């Protein structure tokens, strides 16, 4: 059975909530190949003292191990928030086939909001992009997290 983009984004949302439980910005990511989950991750930069420990980066590292290859051809990466420049750079280098994100990020989004690096003519690898999948739910998880942070 072929799972929908919404199905995989729901899984990423579950991971985003895990990040929020440990006081990390709630972003979750999954990587799928041939309709099978091969990797997942959620934000850990605070816990790991690692600015590169974004959900996407953790999932990309795990996918490379799973496939025994840093090239992640024919994969789809689902993430609850539009990826940043760092994460997009890693996706291009890994040759991810498609990126699906939930909430748009007007401040640091590199998949069309602030920058459009995934479709740039300057890269030899272009990644198909679909934004706004379960956008409201993804945005709500982030807004609730920051609302709680401001109260503290």
Which terms would index this structure?
single chain; 5 strands; globular; alpha/beta; five-stranded mixed sheet; 152 residues
Quick gist of this model?
This protein is an alpha/beta fold. The chain has helices at about 5-20, 45-50, 55-65, 85-95, 135-150, and strands at about 30-35, 35-40, 75-80, 100-105, 130.
Query: Overall mean pLDDT score?
Result: 94
- Structural class comes to alpha/beta
Assembly classification: single chain
Percent range for β-strand residues: 15-25%
Explain how this protein is built:
The chain has 152 residues and is α/β, with parallel strands linked by helices. It has helices at 5-21, 45-48, 55-67, 85-94, 135-151, and strands spanning 28-33, 36-42, 75-81, 98-103, 128-130. The protein has a five-stranded mixed β-sheet with strand order 2-1-3-4-5. Helix 1 runs parallel beside helix 5 (135-151). The radius of gyration is 14 Å and the shape is globular.
How is the secondary structure organized here?
Blueprint: H1 5-21, E1 28-33, E2 36-42, H2 45-48, H3 55-67, E3 75-81, H4 85-94, E4 98-103, E5 128-130, H5 135-151
Parallel strand pairs: 3-4, 4-5
Antiparallel strand pairs: 1-2, 1-3
């Amino acid at each position: 059975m072929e799972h929908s983009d919404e199905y995989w984004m729901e899984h990423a949302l579950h991971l985003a909530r895990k990040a929020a439980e440990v006081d990390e910005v709630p972003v979750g990511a999954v990587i799928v190949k041939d309709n099978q989950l091969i990797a997942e991750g959620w934000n850990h930069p605070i816990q790991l003292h690692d600015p590169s420990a974004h959900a996407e980066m953790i999932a990309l590292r795990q996918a490379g191990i799973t496939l025994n290859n840093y090239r992640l051809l024919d994969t789809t990466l689902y993430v609850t928030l539009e990826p940043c420049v760092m994460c997009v750079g890693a996706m291009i280098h890994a040759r991810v086939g498609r990126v699906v994100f939930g909430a748009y990020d007007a401040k640091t989004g590199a998949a069309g909001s602030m920058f459009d690096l995934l479709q740039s003519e300057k890269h030899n690898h272009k990644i198909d992009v679909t934004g706004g999948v379960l956008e409201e739910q993804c945005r709500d998880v982030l807004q609730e997290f920051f609302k709680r942070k401001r109260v503290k």
